[in-house]
Design a protein that fits this description.
alpha/beta, Rossmann fold, Zinc Finger, Delta Prime, domain 3, about 10% strand
Length: about 300
């Protein structure tokens, strides 16, 4: 995380010079942490993230929120604060909000009540331009492999394991920690990669989706690993022998084989299918149903480009 940018944002909050809306981009864990720290500064005057859940002036949603959730917050903003003068709203993965939720979000951003501050995190390029235009964008950047490796070593990992998990995480420190400490996540990664490789090869294997969808979060993690496969294939097609930079170096042979036989526009279609599945994974959705449909859409994207 860019510490200088983060500290500058916190300083603006403490000195009363903050904007009413921010979009914080970069590594997911770092972006969310900064949003929470800023919210606690606004509500308490100091960093106390653990106290946020106890504050009635703090609201937290993720990109799977329904339009009714957004409208409920909007109604709450019309009332007086419970303590102090400020309210803070943190929305994680805001790029996953559906159209109705985005419209409700836009109305809140257009006329924010005094003392109301929004901290959205997510993918800047997948946000609606009308939403982005009303937010001050804070770009933290992705953590480097070396930074993630150093964090894992500090947590007790040996150098080799730390480096392997750093690459496999696709630049997400929280995923790297999970890969190092939770064998179930490692097994899920393997299953997710094998599933998407099969789909990229034009096949369909629905037997694995149940294993990938024990919960909404596990389904989202599975898509994260699948997207890392797509990014690796793009890197191979762009650079050629890019093994040292691949997230999934343990699947190098399969990645090179698929990269040599699939056009770039097919990979773009696959990424679109994966991104759409992320949006469909609302808290009320059935994860396995969403991933089954996603696999069909991936296979269609591959076969349509192959037939041209």
């Amino acid at each position: 995380m860019n510490e200088r940018i983060a500290e500058k944002l916190k300083e603006s909050i403490l000195t009363g010079r903050s904007m009413h809306g921010y979009l914080i981009t970069g590594a997911k864990s770092a972006s969310v942490s900064l949003a929470e720290e800023c919210a606690s500064l606004l509500l308490f005057g100091y960093e106390a993230v653990d106290k946020l859940i106890l504050s009635p002036d703090y609201f937290r949603l993720d990109g799977g929120a329904k339009v009714d959730d957004i409208r409920s917050i909007r109604r709450e903003l019309q009332t007086r604060t419970y303590s102090g003068d400020n309210r803070a709203i943190v929305i994680e993965n805001a790029h996953l909000l559906n159209d109705n939720a985005n419209n409700a979000m836009l109305k809140m951003l257009e006329e924010p009540p005094a003392g109301t501050y929004f901290f959205l995190t997510g993918d800047e390029l997948r946000m609606l331009p009308t939403i982005r235009s009303r937010l001050n964008i804070i770009r933290l950047g992705q953590m480097s492999i070396d930074d993630i490796k150093a964090r894992l070593i500090a947590l007790g990992g040996d150098e080799r394991t730390a480096e392997e998990c750093a690459y496999k995480s696709a630049g997400e420190a929280s995923v790297a920690v999970a890969l190092m400490t939770d064998e179930a996540i490692s097994k899920q990664r393997i299953c997710a990669i094998k599933t998407v490789l099969t789909a990229l090869g034009g096949g369909l294997d629905f037997s694995s989706t149940k294993e990938l969808c024990e919960s909404r979060n596990s389904a989202l993690d599975s898509i994260h690993f699948m997207l890392s496969v797509c990014h690796d294939i793009i890197a191979i097609k762009a650079v050629g022998n890019a093994d040292k930079d691949l997230c999934n170096q343990d699947y190098s042979t399969e990645l090179h084989r698929i990269a040599g036989g699939i056009p770039l526009n097919a990979i773009t279609g696959v990424i679109d299918a994966l991104s759409l599945a992320q949006k469909r994974l609302t808290p009320a959705a059935r994860p396995q149903q969403i991933l089954d449909k996603m696999l069909i859409e991936i296979a269609i994207a591959v076969r349509e480009t192959a037939s041209r």
